[in-house]
Amino acid sequence: MKSVYIFDACALIAFMNNEEGSDEVERVLKKAIEGNIEIFMNKINIFEIYYGIYGKEGKDTADEAYQRILKQPINVINNLKDEVFRVAGRIKAEYKLSLADSIVLGEAVAKNAVVLTSDHHEFDVIEKNESITFHWIR
User: Fold this and answer.
1) CATH number of the structural domain spanning residue 10
2) Which pTM value belongs to this model?
3) CA distance linking residue 42 with residue 103, whole number of Å
4) Helix or strand or coil: residue 74?
5) What are residue 5's DSSP bridge partners?
6) Environment class of 56 (CB within 10 Å of its CB; exposed 0-12, middle 13-18, buried 19+)
7) What range does the domain containing 117 cover?
8) Is the predicted pLDDT of residue 48 greater than 90, yes or no?
9) Residue 132 pLDDT > 90, yes or no?
10) Sign (positive/negative) of CA torsion 86, 132, 77, 120?
11) Host H or E run for residue 42
12) Which distant-in-sequence residues (6+ apart) come within 8 Å of 119 by Cβ?
């Protein structure tokens, strides 16, 4: 059985901006291209990237970034299944996380996946208290 990863927005942002940790994201993307793993990302988390770029650099740059994301070996999840809805809702309520971060974690639980992220600020407490596996890029 292939390993499954859920990308958090910050991991893909690091890759796209060639920030610290981008080499680790690239390594995971290459494994997906080779067929060794599967990568998923909820469209809400892609939306996080899009609106961030749109606010700083405008529509054209945001649209270009979105097209670049869609070319990656990432399975985009376009809906919110009931299991994800419930887990994300519980986690958001208990840990006061953002909606997008809660959805990443809900997807990870639903798919028994590893969360690829750099967001220690939000997720360190989750790693200590939940049975969710994290792959830290930095």
Assistant:
1) 3.40.50.1010
2) 0.96
3) 8
4) coil
5) 39, 114
6) exposed
7) 3-136
8) yes
9) yes
10) positive
11) strand 37-42
12) 8, 10, 101
> How are strands ordered across the β-sheet holding 114-117?
75-77, 37-42, 3-7, 114-117, 133-136
Structure tokens at 92: 């958001």
Take residue 76 and report the two structure tokens written for it: 């985009």
Number of domains present in the structure of the chain: 1
84, containing H or E segment: helix 82-95
Distance CA 135, CA 118 (A): 8
Query: What is the predicted pLDDT for the residue at 109?
Result: 98
- Provide the terminal-to-terminal Cα distance of the chain, rounded to the nearest Å: 27
Q: pLDDT tens digits for 77-90? A: 999 999 999 999 99
Q: What is the CA radius of gyration of the chain?
A: 14
Kindly tell me the burial class for residue 80, based on how many C-beta atoms sit within 10 Å of its own C-beta (0-12, 13-18, 19 or more): middle
CA–CA dist 123, 39 (Å, integer)? 19
- What's the pLDDT score for residue 1? 76
pLDDT of 58 strictly over 80: yes
Q: Distance of CA 74 to CAs 4, 32, 108, 116, 137, Å? A: 11, 8, 14, 12, 17
- DSSP assignment letter at 71: T
